[in-house]
């Protein structure tokens, strides 16, 4: 799911220098495509406006490696909500408003739902199983159908019991060891998904499934730009010509993708045919696809859909929940206001339930603001799409093969839609009458941006939002969240510089999570032990 732009520009660590990749790629592109491009150029409307680049490299060197979105925001202010960049001869179209995103990715989805090639990771690194890399076509629809069946809004309701069980385990773990909040955050996000997908119970933070998913994503992030992505036929050459660092990394990538997608699948398949599998997405699929000879129809699509869930959800929801904790530490007034709403409903007598959601609009506003984020949305550059046909939009030309970036972060930071975007202000989504809040409907809902658009919209969005709501509300009910103090009594501030990557997330931070005395009776009544 690595945005193409990032892959080309921002992760040059595969053993080849970025400059050589850029120059090499540009020469190839120029040699192969110049005559064709010239013929098309004479007939077409202009590209969307954009900054002037330099020969060969185009705009590559104008995109800062750190916080590139602020540059995109500036370009959007100069050139409008759709602008054009050229990187290595690759046309990149950046969409920086929800309207343009809807017009293209949603309304013209037949053209804009493909992914850039990423031949290296897909065809050579073992990532072919992953829906996020799947070209738009029959296999894509099959995998999406499988995931949608388990993650659509009514299917998500069936997972409430699992989430209610896991939130209690999560809270108990944090009560036992608050300093490991970040570890448990990740562990229980993974536990939800592993139980739902494979019927696998995660019982500790060292569970191999969670470890494999982390390792696979880290390896993917460290591969970086490579000529095989520019000219896939180079992949037919022996790998050793690219050097030892590269071959080692590719070996590791193939091993980790196997561990993440094939190993858990084979385990659950064996259990299914032995009659010992716990009911899950996998067993439901076997019920309808297993044959009498113990083979499974559409097996690749099933392996791929199941194997994608932990990759899609293992990092993303924990990142949002970490941002929530950081936001609460830095905004005690907002924390107080949110807790007032929670306490009014629960009266210290019970833990929150997902059925309470409609009664707590302030919490929903916090979730929207977390997704809008003043620091970094979880997937700041969206995930790149690719145009499969020449297109024209408002008199501008979008050529076939363009990489199309729905720039989530630039949209979320647009002061036109979100005044004072740098401030954390849940109230921007609320109307207040007397003491009561209601959600505004006349403001862009960040939830409709953060998860992408069109047929490629995140299939896990309902599930992610439901778990996040429950986690946020329960943490507010049970804990006082504040900055930890150092030995001199000074607050330890979190670093707001997020770690960039496929999924952006905060650096490790310190926080104080103190159980609220008024909830102790309720915790005991729920068999939650306060040490
Ligand atoms: C806060 C949590 C999450 C955020 C912000 C998020 C965001 C996104 C975004 C922006 C995309 C790309 C959409 C596009 O191409 O336009 C995406 C794709 C995807 N997400 Fe999520 N996601 C989250 C949680 C999850 C969860 C829990 C799952 C697993 C069930 C999941 C599974 C996927 C998959 C499989 C794709 C690829 C879809 C495709 O290419 O067709 N995500 N997500």
Automatic annotation (TrEMBL):
Statement: the UniProt record of this protein carries the keyword Metal-binding: yes
PROSITE patterns for the chain: CYTOCHROME_P450
InterPro entries: Cyt_P450, Cyt_P450_CS, Cyt_P450_E_grp-I, Cyt_P450_sf, Cytochrome_P450_fung
Binding site for heme: 458
The organism's place on the tree of life at top rank: Eukaryota
Listed pathway(s): Secondary metabolite biosynthesis
Entries under Gene3D superfamilies matching the protein: Cytochrome P450 (1.10.630.10)
SUPFAM superfamilies on file: Cytochrome P450
Keyword annotations of the record: Heme, Iron, Membrane, Metal-binding, Monooxygenase, Oxidoreductase, Transmembrane, Transmembrane helix
Record carries keyword Transmembrane: yes
Cofactor(s) in the UniProt record: heme
Name of this protein: Cytochrome P450
Organism in which the protein naturally occurs: Sistotremastrum niveocremeum HHB9708
């Amino acid at each position: 799911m690595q945005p193409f732009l990032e892959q080309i520009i921002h992760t040059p660590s595969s053993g080849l220098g970025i400059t050589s990749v850029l120059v090499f790629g540009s020469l190839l592109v120029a040699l192969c495509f110049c005559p064709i491009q010239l013929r098309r150029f004479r007939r077409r409307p202009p590209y969307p406006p954009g900054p002037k680049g330099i020969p060969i490299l185009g705009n590559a060197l104008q995109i800062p490696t750190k916080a590139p979105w602020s540059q995109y925001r500036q370009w959007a202010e100069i050139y409008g909500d759709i602008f054009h960049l050229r990187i290595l001869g690759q046309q990149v179209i950046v969409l920086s408003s929800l309207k343009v995103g809807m017009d293209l990715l949603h309304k013209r989805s037949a053209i804009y739902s493909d992914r850039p090639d990423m031949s290296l990771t897909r065809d050579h690194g073992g990532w072919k199983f992953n829906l996020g890399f799947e070209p738009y076509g029959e296999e894509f629809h099959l995998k999406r159908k499988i995931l949608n069946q388990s993650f659509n809004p009514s299917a998500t309701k069936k997972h409430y019991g699992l989430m209610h069980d896991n939130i209690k385990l999560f809270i108990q773990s944090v009560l036992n060891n608050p300093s490991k909040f970040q570890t448990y955050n990740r562990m229980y996000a993974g536990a939800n998904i592993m139980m739902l997908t494979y019927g696998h119970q995660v019982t500790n933070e060292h569970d191999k499934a969670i470890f494999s998913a982390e390792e696979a994503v880290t390896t993917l992030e460290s591969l970086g730009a490579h000529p095989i992505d520019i000219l896939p036929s180079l992949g037919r050459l022996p790998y050793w010509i690219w050097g030892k660092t590269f071959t080692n990394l590719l070996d590791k990538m193939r091993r980790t993708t196997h561990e993440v997608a094939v190993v858990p699948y084979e385990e659950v398949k064996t259990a299914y045919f032995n009659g010992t599998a716990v009911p899950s997405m996998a067993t439901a699929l076997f019920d309808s696809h297993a044959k009498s000879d113990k083979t499974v129809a559409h097996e690749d699509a099933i392996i791929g859909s199941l194997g994608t869930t932990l990759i899609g959800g293992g990092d993303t929801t924990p990142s949002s929940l970490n941002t929530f904790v950081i936001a609460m530490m830095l905004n005690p007034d907002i924390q107080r206001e949110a807790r007032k709403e929670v306490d009014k409903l629960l009266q210290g007598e019970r833990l929150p339930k997902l059925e309470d959601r409609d009664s707590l609009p302030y919490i929903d506003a916090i979730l929207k603001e977390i997704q809008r984020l003043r620091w970094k949305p979880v997937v700041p550059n969206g995930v790149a799409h690719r145009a499969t046909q020449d297109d024209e939009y408002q008199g501008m030309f979008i050529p076939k093969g363009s990489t199309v970036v729905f720039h989530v972060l630039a949209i979320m930071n647009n002061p036109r839609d979100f005044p004072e975007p740098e401030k954390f202000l849940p109230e921007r989504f609320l109307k207040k009458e007397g003491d009561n809040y209601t959600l505004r409907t006349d403001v862009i809902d960040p939830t409709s941006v953060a998860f992408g658009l069109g047929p490629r919209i995140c299939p896990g969005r309902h599930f992610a939002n439901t778990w996040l709501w429950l986690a946020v509300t329960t943490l507010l009910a049970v804990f006082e969240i504040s900055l930890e103090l150092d030995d001199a009594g000074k607050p330890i501030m979190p670093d707001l510089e997020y770690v960039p990557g496929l999924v952006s997330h905060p650096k490790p931070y310190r926080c104080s999570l103190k159980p609220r005395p008024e909830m102790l009776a309720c915790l005991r009544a729920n068999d939650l032990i306060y040490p």
